[in-house]
Amino acid sequence: MASPEPDVPFSVSVPVVAEWRESNVRCLGFGSQSLTLELHIDATESQASLRLRLPLALADYRKKRNVYLLVSPEHVLGVRENDGPIPDRVRDDLIKNKGASDILSICFELNQHSVLIAQSGATIRPKRGPSEAALEALHSLTRTTSFVLYLSKDSLHERQLQSLYTLVDAFTLTTGELESLYGGKGATVLPQPETTAESPPSYDELAPSPPPPPALPLSGEPSGPPVKKRKRSPGPADSKDPAWRTSIQQRLDALTQMVGAVRKEIASAAAPAPETQDLASHVNELAAEIGVLREQVGRMEERLEKKLESRLAEATEEMLERVEQRLEKQREEVADDVDDKLYLRDQEWEARLDDTLLDMKEEALLRVNEEMQTVEDSIRDDLRRALS
């Protein structure tokens, strides 16, 4: 890339990793979360624009939406190159994932907190997971007045860095910057969320998404902790216990045989004695009780069968619901992963296009300056010859 003239306005858009301290050291911009520094400086007009762009997956939109952290130049106390060591995780991420060959560390000191801005009218409700953690981290970054940006050293020329270091105190916010965002739809400031007593973990420290749950067992044996079921109401026995049903049936058969034997003895007597009549009455009562008992057993079996069918239907419904939830979660994870990869590819092409356009612009300006110098020299020579 050709070196620009010192007073030529320039704009850069480069991937960065941000680091700051709240209750602990926090970072943002690792892995698939693309944190981008968008910087524009016009030294001739003493104007500058400094913002960090972060795409988020929102619950109310299919595609990711950009949220910006805006730093007003009037609130910048100083910008300097940080001579501290580069953390290994930052170096690895910028070199392996973002194509940097050497790392530059820039420290920003502010006298007032920065703000988050989003498209006017947009509902900023991030999906649970990485986007939710990233937005929380971005809110945390707005609450600090000192942060460090790590970026590729090839992203800025030495003259551009000097403009950033030495003229930042004279810069003002570029006119109409907020109105020009989001395709001219305008932007609005996001309010700070309610703070919690304990600071959440930094975004890069969050554990990766858990692996998908194991497949449901096909056999009757459980492959994991048992699923909680409703407590059964206490009863004499379970309908699945064949021993209980056999015992009831045996008792009924024995009573039936006893009734039959007694009836035979009564029928064989020549004349019914009072004791025989009492015995016959008792046998009839016993037979009636046996009939009632048989009816009760039949109704109990029907109720138990209905309960078994109901519980089987509930278990089947619960299993299908769990399977659907797992499939939905996997679909969301796959969709988020595809969106991240597509966005990173678009960002890479956009960065290449910006670099190419900037090179062409700088080369064109140099050629124009050279042509103007040649024309001026030619005019001076013609004037000298005309006067001599």
Would you write up a description of this structure?
Strand 4 and strand 5 (65-71) form a beta hairpin. The protein has helices spanning 88-97, 130-142, 158-166, 177-184, 242-268, 274-387, and strands at 10-21, 25-28, 36-42, 47-56, 65-71, 76-81, 103-110, 115-119, 146-152, 172-173, 187-189. Strands 1, 2, 3, 4, 5, 6, 7, 8, 9, 10 and 11 form an 11-stranded mixed β-sheet that branches. Helix content is 47%, strand content 18%. Helix 5 (242-268) packs antiparallel against helix 6 (274-387). It is of the alpha+beta class and 388 residues long. It has 2 domains: 1-194, no CATH class; 242-323.
| Helix segment tally | 6
- Low-pLDDT parts are 196-240
Q: Compute the average pLDDT.
A: 77
Secondary structure category: alpha+beta
Q: Strand content of the residues, in percent?
A: 15-25%
Count of discrete structural domains: 2
SSE order: EEEEEEHEEHEHEHEHH
* Distance linking N and C termini: 45 Å
Sheet with the most strands?
Answer: 11 strands, mixed
Radius of gyration equals 41 Å
Write a compact overview of the structure shown.
The protein has helices at residues 88-97, 130-142, 158-166, 177-184, 242-268, 274-387; strands at 10-21, 25-28, 36-42, 47-56, 65-71, 76-81, 103-110, 115-119, 146-152, 172-173, 187-189.
Task: Quickly list its features.
11-stranded mixed sheet, rod-shaped, alpha+beta, 47% helix, 388 residues, 6 helices, 11 strands, 2 domains
Which helices and strands appear, and what pairs or packs with what?
Elements: E1 10-21, E2 25-28, E3 36-42, E4 47-56, E5 65-71, E6 76-81, H1 88-97, E7 103-110, E8 115-119, H2 130-142, E9 146-152, H3 158-166, E10 172-173, H4 177-184, E11 187-189, H5 242-268, H6 274-387
Parallel strand pairs: 4-10
Antiparallel strand pairs: 1-2, 1-3, 1-9, 3-4, 4-5, 5-8, 6-7, 7-9, 8-11
